[in-house]
Amino acid sequence: MKTATRFSSALIATTALAGAASAKVLDLPIIIKDGYNMVDFGVGEPAQHFQLLFDTGSASAWMVDAECAETCTHIDKGHRTGYNISASSTGKLTGQDASIGYIDGNLVAGPTVKEQFSAGGLTFEASFIAANESNWSSLAAAGFMGLSFGSIADGGAAPIFESLMAEKLMDEPRFGIYYSRADGDNTNGAPGKGVLTLGGSREDKYVDGDLITIDLTTGGNGDYDVWRSVLHTVTGSSKSSNSTKSKKQDFPMDGANIVFDTGASAIALPSGQLEEMYESIGMNWTAIINGEHIPLCNEFTDDWSITLQVGFYGSEKNLTVTGTQMALPGFANREDACWPPFEETDSTGFSLIGTRLLKNFYTVWDYSAFPADGGFMSPKLSFGKLKAGY
Could you tell me which PROSITE patterns the record lists for this protein (predicted)? Predict the structure, then answer.
């Protein structure tokens, strides 16, 4: 059964207080460093510029403060710039604070700040955590821009995009993401060809054919939290070089949770069937993890693929990626070796889909409604096959 939840009361209050403003669509170029996908924001007055990793797996924005940039454990310790509230005429402490933990064990903590942001010619107010504690030791970004739902916001810091919607600054209640494969893992600090579009989407430019759309499910508390749906089946398909017929094997997932997370890179599937999944695409997982086989990039071809059957019962959709699309050089510090295509989660009922799959599609993340439209939403996530050249 489809469910609908309200936007947070804080956002609805913000909407009621917002003055008239022209709606806008922001196309923010994606900057990539060491595989981290980031966008640039000006923060404060005068603006201090920070590159934030956009993350659909968390809600609140955060960035390291000036002291943490100097003292917190990091490979660039003492050589980065953090947010300085004393240098801004518009920053105000809200009196709240937060500690944000991540699935990989990383943690940030600090007070909540209400501040002026600017991007793409638009200036607006939003709240974030000014982290004076962080153990993100190798994160290339100054912090995170959370793009999940406000029900899991920390320290009163509503997601930036939800704040933009509440302030009537967005043209439509959705955002779109195009990852440019041509950009690789590094754009050398400059904007790449990839784009995060806020307040709209660009499927007419990037998508060949129709979008594949799935409905989202709520979390355990009945609210939308992250961009999650239902995983029914994983299908491995392969054929030998001298055959035109594919051999397919289905792996039932029994309605497992599947979370689509731009802050992660891996494709992590429910535990218990990984060895057989690798066999279905012609690989040996045990040999790989024991160091007996290093998968070479020339093994990643269109002769094999994986298909995820996702969505509500009765309206399931198939997402397919081929070996060629999954090729990611650099495994075992070798450019001719590619990272294994997927890994295992610690749970039989949970899977995590990161950018390794997402970058092969144009994605549209649709809230379905603005806070001012009555407060109800029935969000959807859409996937589009990229046009040739993209």
Answer: ASP_PROTEASE (PS00141), PEPTIDASE_A1 (PS51767)
